[in-house]
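your task:
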Amino acid sequence: YNNCIIIMETSITGWWFTIEPYVYIGLTSECVLLYNTLDGEYIESNKVEIIQLLKKLLERNNQGVVYLTNEDIQNRIVESFVDEVREKYMGDIIDIALSNEKPVQILPLFNFLDNEKLEVYKRHNFSVSRNLLENLFEITIHVNNETDICAFLNFLKSVPSKIIFNIYGKLNDVVNNERLLSFLDNSSSLKKVYCLYTEIPCSQTFFMNNFLYCVLVNFPIDIRLWEDVLITLREQNLSYKYIFNVASLNDCQDAEQLIERFRIKEYQIKPIYDGTNMAFFKEYVFLSKKDILSMPISIKNIFANQAINTYDFGKINIMSNGDVFANMNFLPIGNIYKDSVYDIVCKELNEGESWFRVRDKEPCNRCVFQWLCPSPSDYEIAIGLTNLCHVM
């Protein structure tokens, strides 16, 4: 490495500076971020010289390679930056004398950030010329005592195979609920039955073929009923998972005690915003820079964050009255009594607000971590903010 420094100092020809194709570059007018998607290492700088250098590198006609003179490389800020880039295996410099022509580098750029180009991208990747229903991955069914099971079954018969089914509601109150569960039982898809621990379905409605019973727990709990339910689940040899809805630190501690005391292996801690617990969310839910960078993020996931909402994409919700939503916070996109599953998916792809909801609003669009963050969730909608972080 010291030899490289000596060459740099004595070369009279200059250098090609390039960034590796697995490095994501986030750039704003005030900051630049280089993120190594292989190991999670990163470089962040607000130096004007570095921002200008990366802007130049990203220009289309430079093809990911820029020329550095000896004067450039001897600038302390640039030299320190180049050294760090090389030390973290994010890029390199090449003596011009070793290259007859300017090298060509392929940078990981998602080139569809303006609306017109993004619409072209969506039409190309999710068009009717391909199998439109391939974009549907998960269906959530909300049932109650007014649910028309026959209509639901007629609709579900036309959906693709291998779709995840979620069932919400009091199944014991649904007329002909066993017809619905029997239909699902004949499918090899994963079926998740969501129910409060106080409303576990009667034992005769339990089904076994790839069913997962997701037991919702709100605090405070009835410990006697809790114990009875746990005994029932274990005696039936069912696959189950507990979902603890927590709105405070005390709820979290109570959940941890139950998990430890009853040796619960499959569980999820799910924060719930109730309109009064913003302090809890800021402390335990909002992301910090450390949280965002805690695990390596692949180029594929970064591109996905720019193109689609990874929480909503490919999912629909069917209400007991037949209305269909891509996200419950927006207008319905159809109704199973009058629209086919094809029409519903097509409408969301072409007109919907949910599947393509990304972090393109203030203040996220001014942040170099914009596409490293997960997609906007329902929390942002409930709280009324576009970002849930401590970065911007």
Summary: The two ends are 38 Å apart (CA to CA). Confidence is low (pLDDT under 50) at residues 1-11.
